[in-house]
């Protein structure tokens, strides 16, 4: 009995020692996690009730898609400095070449020479009186440019495109004609100075309603000219109508509208073309007594360079 009691006591001491050693060396197990409620409603469910799971709202993306981002390309470029306040020089000419890559226009200047002018978005372009753009410029057009010196370059402050060519008409006697030089000089009764007109390959020559060669025109001819003005003192003839050639005989029939016996001038309104013609009487031939305004006459004349001179004059019907 004593042995059994001692054995039981020893076993108890060994078991207590082993339990204490295990408790001191092994870490305690982690606590079991509490189940998270699926929603605010399910977290407060009373015993005996059935939980109803509410769906969560869809997540909203924090980043805007690239497709919704719109950027103005102009905003990505640096701002241009203001146009320098320099004295502008106006030049006129014809567009010879447009370099849209280097933003440069080459102008054939009126009066001779060429000039290269830079432009940029600050350049104002006008088509007539309306706002336009560089895209409206074309080679061959006549333009006027307000130019300023920007450093070492010539800059276009504004470009004006003429919407239509200035046109004009003149009538007079050709005092000089150089077919090889493409120019004639005209003595116009209205202009106090001679008028110089340039000719080109597109100039048409007419005599009456017929197209004639350029060689038909002679110095001393009476002509009517339609021309385009280039605005720099040079006019280019579009059409030259030969009214009379020197030494050629012309016959007029019509009514007398004016008589000046002192100067021998008779003005006739032609019944053919309803135009008025000044005819000078031969000083050696006495005038007819029935020659006065209102008379209907037929006159054969010679064109003598600057005027018609009557060879014969016949009164068909005396005036009242």
What does this protein structure show overall?
The protein has helices at 2-25, 40-43; strands at 89-99, 104-109, 114-118, 124-127, 130-132, 142-150, 153-161, 166-178, 183-188, 195-198, 204-207, 210-211, 222-229, 235-244, 249-260, 265-270, 276-280, 296-303, 308-317. By secondary structure, it is mostly beta strands. Among the domains are: 89-161, OB fold (Dihydrolipoamide Acetyltransferase, E2P); 166-244, OB fold (Dihydrolipoamide Acetyltransferase, E2P), CATH 2.40.50; 249-317, OB fold (Dihydrolipoamide Acetyltransferase, E2P), CATH 2.40.50. Strands 3-2-1-6-7-4-5 form a seven-stranded mixed sheet, with no helix packed on it. β1 and β2 (104-109) form a beta hairpin. The radius of gyration is 53 Å and the shape is elongated.
Report the mean per-residue pLDDT as an integer.
75
Count of DSSP helices?
A: 2
**Total strands:** 19
The side-by-side strand order for the widest beta sheet comes to 3-2-1-6-7-4-5
Q: Shape, please?
A: elongated
Report the sheet with the most strands, covering strand number, pairing sense and barrel closure.
Answer: 7 strands, mixed
Q: Identify the CATH architecture of the domain at 166-244.
A: Beta Barrel
Rg (C-alpha, Å): 53 Å
**Helical proportion?**
under 10%
Structural class: mainly beta
CATH topology value of the domain at 166-244? OB fold (Dihydrolipoamide Acetyltransferase, E2P)
Helix and strand succession? HHEEEEEEEEEEEEEEEEEEE
How far is the first residue's CA from the last residue's CA? 190 Å
Within CATH, the superfamily of the domain at 166-244 carries the name Copper binding periplasmic protein CusF
Which residues sit in consecutive blocks of at least 5 with pLDDT less than 50? 1-25, 36-43
- CATH class category of the domain at 166-244: Mainly Beta
Strand content: 35-45%
